[in-house]
């Protein structure tokens, strides 16, 4: 891989969310797959495959989503550039589109114990490729769990990847971060072919650390990156001394946003050094200056830079007991509704049809209306897990069996409509008592049929 004479920049806008609903690459150290620590999904392909260009095993997205359609981008948008294929393989040639529904989700099942207190890195990639021949690149919102992540402009994403083909990634980077070349103004390149000490905390690839830039003249160099305003950022500067000097040391300091300084730091030959700035509030561009100290006999260098945008988790997912109850109900009755995926209550404008929620710190389901939904079988006992439910309407279905007594244990239930079904047996006394004392409005009427035996129609003449 030819990465000489380049400074590498890794930019990732990161949100630390617990629940994962949409992802293309999700990486976790103890996830056992063909690539340990990785789950890489290629949307729109029918079968799993090994991408020989990257060495990554890609899975079809069929088992992670239940909606959408597979498509290929048009041939004129499929690159025949060898360097592009080496980096990205074929995963931008196919896609899954979602022409139906306001919310479409990818669901990744993680073991509760192993996911607890774990960190995840999610990368989602998009390429429109005029698959529908409409020349209308879509623009849509992307959520992780119940929290807004970003708005995707697929036209902008395509332009970004076309302009950034020369880069370092897996297998050089064990986390498959993609490092893009970045040249600071008024700088010159420094590089080495020597081995870099591999013990660095942030696992920066040796191939990345083998290149650096220094000022073309003077004792400082300045960089600027355009980022979204009014967010906090974590920034990581990575260094490794690439040159040997018998009587000189490279001593530097770093100043960001015109005022926050760390240092001085002395660089050691071929030994990585990473300096971080945490929770920086950036307004406008992010700027930095790396300068040599008065005692330094050498100008400053910079090998690589990472910048992460921090987003607050504004919303909690729906109460897990409620989620378990409604998902069990969905499976019990084979409810096939396009919007019954993802979190039942959030985002607020995509709450599952037939549900109402109370949006406290943790959303709770307070109403369920499945009237005239062609339900069959017995009343699901899972409904008893909806401890904040106030109204249940199961009327005019094909429900059979008896009315379960556990429904009387729902402390806030005010309306239970079971009319128009084929239920048998008496109403449980506990429910009848609540109906009698006025704390529960109970509607319970069986379907009745009238049979007339016609013996003919006559009239007299």
From TrEMBL:
Family matches, as PANTHER family: OS07G0107800 PROTEIN-RELATED (PTHR45631), PROTEIN KINASE DOMAIN-CONTAINING PROTEIN (PTHR45631:SF212)
Coiled coil: none
Organism: Hibiscus sabdariffa (roselle)
Localization: Membrane
Protein origin, superkingdom: Eukaryota
Short name of any one Pfam family annotated for the protein: Malectin_like
Keyword field contains Repeat: no
InterPro entries: Leu-rich_rpt, LRR_dom_sf, Malectin-like_Carb-bd_dom
The Malectin-like domain, residue ranges: 41-156, 164-309
Membrane topology: Single-pass membrane protein
Keywords: Membrane, Signal, Transmembrane, Transmembrane helix
The UniProt record lists the keyword Membrane: yes
Protein name stated in the entry: Malectin-like domain-containing protein
